[in-house]
Write a structure and sequence with these properties.
The chain has a single domain (2-309), classed as Na+/H+ antiporter like fold, CATH 1.20.1530.20. The chain is 76% helix and 0% strand. It has 14 helices and no strands. It has helices at residues 2-23, 31-53, 63-86, 91-102, 110-118, 125-146, 154-162, 165-179, 185-195, 198-209, 220-246, 251-261, 268-276, 280-309. Helix 3 (63-86) packs parallel to helix 12. The radius of gyration is 19 Å and the shape is globular. The protein starts with a helix and ends with a helix.
Length: 310
């Protein structure tokens, strides 16, 4: 347990370093976006490629993928029901709130948590497969439908999916893993050099992006933000735990799917909200709040599993 707590604390310290660098002016206001772009287009895909290619397909497609699907969909549906029936949210607030409540940051925060808390980057792969292949495109379509942008077309949705660098990297990784092909050492070394930069870089970028963030919880958007944070940090991991138990998982495997279900909200929620011009305050605040709160909750979750397992 001490190792997990220490590793999570190290993640928090790196985020704080990013905040301090931006706060003191050591890096400029555009640094967070630049670093995030580097991770999105190069570092995270490289890490995802070698993590999948070095892992048997059976370890990433199976019950963990089913848990990711169950917890993500059920959380979104339950949030939508509560927001519409009990809080009188409009359709845009409901769609972007549901996206913020259920979309996991498996590509960014999931990578360092997978490596430094759970032991391997591949533990976030089932979540990424489900989200990149289904949940994220679904919410992009829904947000465009309720927003002010051009209505999406099937070709546009497919283009968005298959030009995503994470999807391309995952497909190539699965191809290597399934065929047993060994890439040339130059490819392998390059992927590791670039991919190993992803965890630290994204945490620095996250810390830098937090400078100057302020939120109000007194409006309907604020109350929906609180609801989305509660669903993301509490309801979704509990659903993941229940789904894992129902599917026969136990021990470290059960802890893994529970921790992955409790990851903070993905920045894709804010991107979708900005694109559609609906639910922007909900998505932005939920991303920041859940990111800060997810680290101590990860320690709590791991400690409960370890304590109960003794």
């Amino acid at each position: 347990m001490g190792v997990i707590a220490e590793n999570v604390a190290a993640l928090a310290v790196v985020i704080a370093v990013g905040w301090l660098l931006r706060r003191t002016g050591a890096i400029g206001p555009a640094a967070g976006q630049v670093l995030s772009s580097f991770v999105y287009w190069a570092a995270a895909p490289a890490l995802l490629f070698y993590a999948i290619s070095e892992t048997p397909v059976s370890q990433v497609i199976g019950r963990p993928l089913a848990v990711a699907a169950i917890s993500g969909l059920l959380t979104a549906i339950l949030f939508a029901v509560v927001a519409r029936l009990f809080m009188r949210a409009d359709v845009g607030q409901t769609v972007l709130g549901a996206m913020s409540a259920s979309l996991n940051n498996a590509a960014y925060i999931g990578i360092p948590i997978g490596i430094y808390v759970l032991g391997h980057a591949s533990y976030g792969v089932p979540v990424m497969i489900f989200q990149l292949g289904f949940l994220t495109p679904l919410f992009y379509v829904l947000s465009d439908l309720v927003g002010s942008h051009t209505r999406p077309t099937p070709a546009g949705v497919l283009r968005r999916i298959f030009t995503n660098p994470m999807v391309i990297a995952a497909m190539l990784g699965f191809l290597v893993s399934a065929t047993g092909f060994h890439p040339p050492s130059l490819v392998d070394t390059t992927a590791h050099l670039i991919g190993d930069a992803a965890p630290g870089t994204v945490l620095i970028a996250l810390g830098a992006s937090m400078v100057g963030q302020t939120f109000s919880m007194h409006s309907l958007d604020g109350r929906l933000t609180g609801l989305a944070c509660g669903f993301k940090l509490l309801v979704q991991p509990l659903i993941g735990l229940a789904a894992g138990l129902a599917l026969g998982l136990s021990g470290h495997a059960l802890m893994t799917v529970t921790v992955m279900a409790g990851l903070p909200t993905a920045q894709n929620a804010f991107i979708a909200a900005t694109r559609a011009k609906v639910g922007e305050k909900i998505a932005e605040a939920t991303v920041v709040i859940t990111t800060v709160a997810a680290l101590p909750l990860t320690v709590l979750t791991a400690s409960l599993f370890i304590h109960l397992g003794d």
